[in-house]
Amino acid sequence: MAKIVSSWNDWDPLKRVIVGRCDNSVIPPEEPATSEKVPVDSEMRGMWGLRPSDTVARGNECLENLVKILEDRGVVVDRPTPLQWNQAIGTPDFRNDSMMTCMPPRDILLTIGNEIMAAANSFRCRYYEYLAYWPLMEMYFEQDPDFKWTQAPRPRLTDRSYKHNYYDEKISLEERLERTAAKDFVTTEVEPMWDAADVMRMGKDLFIQHGLTTNRAAMDWFQRYYPEFRVHAVNFPGDPYPIHIDATFVPLRPGLIINNPHRPLPEPQRAIFEANDWQIVEAADPAHTEPPALCYSSVWLSMNCLVLDPKTVIVEASEVHQQEQMDKLGMNVIPCDLRDAYPFGGGLHCSTADVYREGECLDYFP
Ligand code: DAV
Question: How many domains does the chain have?
């Protein structure tokens, strides 16, 4: 019996990882939590259904590029088992006309030490997405006697979980920014809801973004579940669509973080980093002015990199400015052509979920 699952942060040497799949991906129908995520001028507004098959094939090709880079470096790569995502689903509390995808895994699975936990996502269309990863969880459970297989409390996602008419087509960018600054998001606080990609793991500290996909009740839940950890709620008032921390605040190695210059971490939240001599560097500008077609995310997926070890990082191949900056920061940069996977939910960090990194749970902020 071997040790298969262990990871405490995003930078220790990566040995085993899950890479998503684009098969059967759907642009989901509108529901209370998702309309917020689609910008008013997006070509995706008001449309839903299976994504065009040529884009699925191309997205999968990009993910294969990543798999090859990882395997060539000796990293073990596991893949999910996609479901037929364009099926209607229901629970006693809600019905939804479709599911979405098994991209990106980073939103669904949170690895903390020897535990992998399926998240309490706020999108109804993602309610059953964890099933794509269950064959892997079964395998880890069978092979690793220390693996803790966990499901966070399932949110009910009734109408009480959302602010209705929170989202108004006519809302201006300024109003959006005011809402972010006021921590006024589409979810209510009746139950903990969170996406795993809002949680940044740094040993004994968890920095969790409060935004459109993760609420305050989730912070409270995390602190009670992990009493030995310090849970920090963080906010980035410069982000009009605050979803996931990994295109905003990205650690490269102990002591060094790149921060989206449009979404700076405000005082006093910076204090804990500064007091411990961490350097927060403004990330380089993206190489693109627009995201690819049918993409939910912003151009800042440029900084959504996958750190292989404290000296090595995979960066998207067209993101030349980000590559150059990483190089200057002393990282060995491996470019990977992945841009056509962005529409499926994200960049290099999003498209993966940690299974095993060397190293232990350290206190970086004593
Ligand atoms: O900037 O659109 C994308 C994060 C995806 N996990 C953004 C955030």
Answer: 1
